[in-house]
Amino acid sequence: MCLSVLLFLLWIKVKGLDYVIVHQRWIFVCLFLLPLSVIFDVYYYLRAWLIFKMCSAPKQHDQRVRNIQRQVREWRKEGGKTHMCTGRPGWLTVSLRVGKYKKTNKNIMINMMDILEVDTQRQVVRVEPLVNMGQITALLNSLGWTLPVLPELDDLTVGGLVMGTGIESSSHIYGLFQHICVAFELVLADGSLVRCTEEENSDLFHAVPWSCGTLGFLVAAEIKIVPASLWVCLQYEPIRGLENICRRFSEASEDKNNTFVEGLQYSLDEAVIMTGTMTDTAEPDKINRIGLHYKPWFFKHVERYLTENKKAVEYIPLRHYYHRHTRSIFWELQDIIPFGNHPVFRWLFGWMVPPKISLLKLTQGETIRQLYEQHHVVQDMLVPMKHIQTAIARFHQDIHVYPLWLCPFMLPPGRGMVHPKGEEAELYVDIGAYGEPGVKHFQAKASCRQLEQFVREVHGFQMLYADVYMERSEFWEMFDGTLYHRLRKELGCQDAFPEVYDKICKAARH
Ligand SMILES: Cc1cc2nc3c(=O)[nH]c(=O)nc-3n(C[C@H](O)[C@H](O)[C@H](O)COP(=O)(O)OP(=O)(O)OC[C@H]3O[C@@H](n4cnc5c(N)ncnc54)[C@H](O)[C@@H]3O)c2cc1C
Fold first, then answer.
1. Is residue 237 situated within a structural domain?
2. Residue 74 within a domain
């Protein structure tokens, strides 16, 4: 044992610590980040559980809101010299980049991470903005309820999903995360507290999603809930040929009998399309508890059906289904722990996986950050379903990253930043590319700009957590700024918050 530790230390000395951290990152991740991540998770889980059981959250909520109002008023009293932003450290967010503005803007501390109320009569849950998806499913599913749209990664927060974007494989029925929200409560630039809904302060209600905290601070949201079942009956269908894939995927997305629709595309002309429904009964021999720590990573499990070229049906516990991509962070973890899906690793250490994205970011260092920026893509592009085939071909040509995540969603007409071109609701698809580009000519800026241009041409949208290379004018060509700009003027946001473009563009983040 001692000898192996000595040899290991010697090897680090010979290679250099930098080399080991960059090229053999798994060593650092497995030895330090995995145990630390477990401690983090246990602490937050116990805290949320205790607070909810003691019912102390609603009482403290008003006090916390007053505290935010006080901070905003102080900022005004001091002359409001810089813009304001949330004080949550950039490394704690799921988005891979850290905003430079955090260092120069006035940080408003919003420590609000409690579920305030589950109202089964009105079918609404009221939550604070830092409540995350893992917390919500743990509580709601145990009470027999769920969110109609439950974005998968445990760490995604309500604030981030409302102010940014949230999507799930049920979005072809319910829309984006913003569309299942019925009320937002915000502290505005003048320190006042407002509630907005479809009927009350309706302009603000429509303008908040995608505004990334540039209209006010979210302090609570009311979100629709629906009854939950025990299982998801999931059908796997391997399909070959791009045209077939697109046709079958569109059909499945239009069929409202499917509660869940998702596609994993493994090459230009190979995909597995999954359709699911909720149910309370399961055929025992078809049960698969995919969330257990020793089970294969979900995208690898799905790929087996493609390799074996067979259709299949499985019954998956609802919560396991929701968080199916959490353990492997979609397929990002294979680049960090290449042997992470090996059965031995899964059985011995799978219960510690995944490392927290926040800890990965905090410890990545400048060299890894730059390597990632140049040789790694994380993009979600939302395009009208009628352009899916061209869009996949463009992804193939410009970046060539597989698997691709295909998630359909219904986009209702509206007047916020994101809505279809016409007055009718339109079916869209989120195409997510996460990984190392396979094209030789890949250049992060040029290749992503080409994709962005294509997305603008087909009246699509780019998710704003990703690297956005558009110029300001191109950005406002993609997003509708009419209502947003009017409200920024009316609510005195211009001196209080940066414009959304200045917050998310490439120059604003590192
Ligand atoms: C690896 C990875 C996987 C992902 N997987 C999914 C997925 O499965 N499904 C999905 O839908 N999306 C996914 N996303 C994208 C995700 O939806 C966005 O990153 C989203 O914005 C949520 O991130 P967050 O909770 O970390 O929020 P943040 O990054 O903390 O917040 C996003 C924006 O909202 C603002 N904001 C947050 N809280 C407040 C507040 N209280 N008041 C005012 N402004 C606020 C922030 O300032 C920021 O501009 C993924 C992203 C990555 C990088």
1. yes
2. yes
